[in-house]
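Journal club side-thread
Mid-discussion, someone asked how the predicted structure for our own chain would compare to the paper's figures. Pasting it here so we can look after the session.
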Amino acid sequence: MNSEKSGGNAPGSSQIRHKKCVLLLGPEDWSRLAEELRGLGFQVAHASDPTDLRVHQHWCLAVVDASHPEVVASVVKRADRTVYFPVLAVNAPPQEFPRLLELGAILVPGLSGVEPLVRTVARWAEVACPPPEVEARLRLVEGIAWFGLYMLDAELKVTYVSPYICELLKRAGEEVVGQSVLEAIHPEDRPRVERVLREKLAGKEYPPHPVRLLKADQTPVWTEVYSRRVEIVGRPHIVGVVREVEAERRRQLIQTTLFRLVRELLTESEPKALLQRVADAIVEVGGFRRAVISLYDLNWPDPLDAPVQEVVTAGLTEEEKRRLLASGGMTPQHRRTYFSDEFRIGPEAYYIPYHKNPLEIEGTGLPGTVEMEGWSPLDLLFVPLRVEGMIIGHISLDDPVDPAAPTPSTLEPITHLAAVAALAVKRASEEDLKLRHERHLKAAREMGRGLSQAASPGEVLQRAVAFIRGQLGYRFVGAGLLEGGKVSSFWHSVAGEVEPWDPPPSLEEWGPLARALEERAPQLLPRIGPDQPRCPAARRFELASVLLAPVFLEGEPKAFLVVGEQNPYALGKLDLGTIEYVASWCELTLDVLRMRERLAGLYELAHSLAHVEDRKHLLQQVMQALRSRFEFDYCAFFRPVEGEMELEAIEVEEGIQLLPHIKPGWRLPKGKGVISWVAKERAPLLLADVRSYSDYVAGAPEVRSELAVPVLAGDELLGVLNVESHQPAAFGGDELAILQAVAGQLAVALQNLQSRKMLKELAIRDPLTGLYNRRFLDEVIGQEVAAARRYHRPLALLYVDVDGFRAVNNAYGHQMGDEILRRVAGFLQENVREADYVFRVGGDEFLILLPETDGEATGIAERLKRGIKQALEDVGLPLGLSIGVAMWDPESDFDLDALIAEADKKMYEDKKSSSRNPVQRDRGV
């Protein structure tokens, strides 16, 4: 071998890796051919003896003197067969043509002289040597485990294939490269694939499509293929991507089942019932014989540290359930250890083999019962319930049907289900919070009237304690009266009655109250730990969450309210806002008591405002009330709009001329005027002479004095109320007190308007049947009870249950079940009086309220039970009604829950005693 002619690199050298590398294996006089090819930009390795080929080479093209066919065979044997390259056989004897063709060589006969040989080799080299960046790009991503890459030439032969595809087909690269791609296609798909590829080469584009490939053992595997046409050195090629979808097709059944369950979860409102559905589905189709779902306390800032709130199981015996609940479950330390990247498999599952468990689990949880290769009864497998970045619970899976169960692919449907379940639980929690908010709004709306009837500060606080305890149901409620910097009296309620705490704990013992008084804001202690100072109520009644709200009168502390719960984080922002609202009511009521003589009529104003239905009328009433107590030129109310203060309403005395632009809708220059200052500082401003205020903005000529107060709901600015007069020093402390009191009433009234608007927007009908829902029953029952007492006529309540309904769901599915419920609802609605009410209160449970019914309720119930058979006779199932009747005498006290419970009990008695109903109703949730 001539090393000089070969460019200084031996053919066996690992340095010759250039993608435009041509091998010349021929006589010494081919050196001119080598120089000509180098001049054309190719790297050339020239050798005269095949024994010099010590390692496989990455050639694009080999040119071989085939005078001796063994030389061609040697080159083919030693070459890199993971990519396709041509071998040009020059000077081959005719008798050796068949053998050379069998080796895959390309015969180049009849060439004499260097010039023709250079032209021929150059043309082949340009075609066979793709630009380096093409294959480099392919190799950059060929190691990705999710898909494979391939490249075809214009004859549909494979010129490149990545390891992913070789592994998928169970074939070596050299078995694929250089072969027609159609040989790897399932025979039924070949015509379609060939047509698509030919059309792609002609320039037509196709979206990804499924193709069955053939493995080495001729078994098919489903794949998804996407490819496109590319130009390489002027010739069309196909570059494509292959992704296996066989596993996806196998999981389709379980996914279909679980996705159907997902739709059902979105309609479930009870978290425990929701989680039970999930656990049952996992055991039925998820590949595990046992499942336990633990839901943490969602009130905690990070539920991962919270105690377990609910536990549901599937696949466990009653004894196993008992043992599980008695074991205590995982601690937060266990959770944080197990839910770490060390044990993560896939995006949302955690597998802890028993031999790698770093924590002691003796006495924690329940061991499995299945042992097989790849699974131990002591292995742990969890899928967390994660929502908004927080883990709110977990699913523990055990006793797998398949030992390969703890893999990302088999767990993927369950992880999706867990994600939807977590969202549904969160939604149910938010719905519960919404209902609590509605209850708080309703209670707050009623509170003012009760407090305003108090005759002394002590009675105000006692009424506040009774109201909070009765309406909102906190574990502990208390209130203390402050006089001379000391707690003069304290009242509290735990069991229902309001009792004095005598002697009352001193102010110093209340700990956080000092900060509340200093900051003039409520203090929430969401979790009182053993190492934290406790207030007297927390020590005495074992409270773990406490809220204290101060009450001020003319800037001085006058009283304070306390509420507490026994569970950490049981009190939150909603409670803070509610108790702050109660405190503001107490403050206002105490102020009213102090100024009762001076502010005669304010209660009447508040009472009238509570019944105003629109904002415009509300502001008119406020200003008309102020007119009777003030001497002013005009009174105005400004509201905040887009960071500016806009005039919303104005009351002008006769004979006063405003500036032309002063009318509703006008906005103050930003940051200018008394109103802007009051809005920014959230504080009143009294000006004896407006000329002393440089930023004063005039609304009428010759105005000399102004008084403005903010209208606040907590820290929220609702507006600014002001009065102005042409008299200097027209307003003083009394007027300031009156205007502040009116502003407080106005704030309450504006909030009440908003609250009523929110409550009116709540749906009062069941979306499936169109009947009234339970919420509307709570609203309408008051007026019906009042009417019954007025006319001395009893009320009747029918509790109706559809017998055999579960059989409909089991036999025909929920769609048929929904249709049955609609038909039953229509039947009940059509067969009672227009004045009667029909409510849907559960899955297949209904209530019928019969006003002014005297002795007719039992007959109505029997008529309904007879009529339903005819109404549903086309269903072909033994459907019927069980009805319980409860009557209320208007001479007795009324308790709706007790009346419903009585009707429910009698309905069960009717079900048990009726021989027509062999199918027992599943109560469900």
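Post-session note: The first strand starts at residue 21 and ends at 25.
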